Structures are given as structure tokens and as C-alpha cells.
Amino acid sequence: MLIFAVVLVMSICFRLSYWQWQRALDKQSQLMMLSEQPENKQLLINTNAELLQGAKTVLVGEFRSGYWWLLDNKIVNGQIGYDLIALFDADGVNDPLIVNLGFVAAGKDRAQLPNIELPVGPIEIDAQFKIGEWSGFTLAKYPNQSIHHRNVLQYLEPSFFSREINAAVSPLLVIANQPVMADVTPHYQAVVMSPDKHRAYALQWLLIGLSAGIIAFFAIRQKSKELIK
Asked: Where are the domains of the chain?
């Protein structure tokens, strides 16, 4: 029974180690692909979305006029305000992208929104990607339930933007790394597990598995000696 339990534990640990090692290889490969071919935006569609978390690229395209929103309840450097969200048509990407351009300070009167004028014409955005659940924790029942304004959002949701434009949007949420507009300050920091960290976890699981086997070996050996005596 003990031997079976030890073999089971070692097997699980080795499988986890192999899985982390494979994730490191996959992520390294995808990140190299993006860095080597930043002009090929179609990679954004074909790449495993999970592996794009924190990946950076330069997007070229245009903002869609009139399509912007303010994500409420943001605090940056002690100031209360919003994150400016805009719709961006990127060259080489079929579906429009939702872009978080950064922090906009709120005025004293919450009923009065900041004056927003999106850039007109082709523009470059130094960007990175946030993958997974867009909304985070929220008590809001739907995105645009602000008392004062329809385009003030409580959380982000791809289906909401699809309904707004009556078309599909990309599942990739884009975060601007550099300022695109005056008085709009990028502040997002992606939580990224690098390939090296995956390798470290792979080594950790491998060592745990080996340790379990070694400890079990000496325990069984000691027990056998006691029985012989």
C-alpha cells in the first residue's frame, strides 16, 4: 500500500514537472514569434490567447470615431478617476480591439465627464495584452449601470462591446504601454509568468517527486531492518 502511494505521488509530481516544462517551451516559442514578427498582426488571432498574457507588440490602425467609454472607480497616485477605453481597428486584425488607454482624472462633479477627443487618422500604439476574465470582481449586474452616463462602465465585458457595435470584437484586451493622448496615463502592469518561472516550477515538482521517492526508500529500508532484527 505504501509503495503504491509513493508511486502515485511521484507520478503526479513528474507529470506536473513535465507540464510546466512544456508550458515554458510553448511560451518561449510564442513570445519569440511575436518579437521577431511584430508586423504580422494576424499572429494575434492564431496564437494561443493564454500565452499572450503580458506579450508586447506595436499596433498600427485607427480609433473608431465616437466609440469610447470610461471605466469607473480607478485610483492612480491618490487621484480618483477612470480608465479610458476605446475601440481600435488595427491593421491585419479582422475584429476590432478594445484598448485601455490609461487613467483619466475625474473632476469634482461626478456628473460632468472629462472631455475626450480620440486621435484621428492612423496611429501607433505600444501595447501589451491582458488575457482571461476582463471584469474582475464586481457587484454590478451589467457594465453600463452608471446613474449619470451610459458610457461610464463598472466593468469590461466583450459581449457588451459586441452589442454596442453590433459586431464581434477581439477576445484580446489591449493595454497601452505608452501615452497616446495628453492627460491619459497608462498604469497597467501585467502579471506574467515568464518561461524561466515555468522552468523553475518544473524543477520544483521534479525535486519534490524525487524527494518523495528517496524518503520512501529509506523508510522502507529501515522498516525491513527492524523486521529482520
From this structure: 1-51+193-229, 54-176
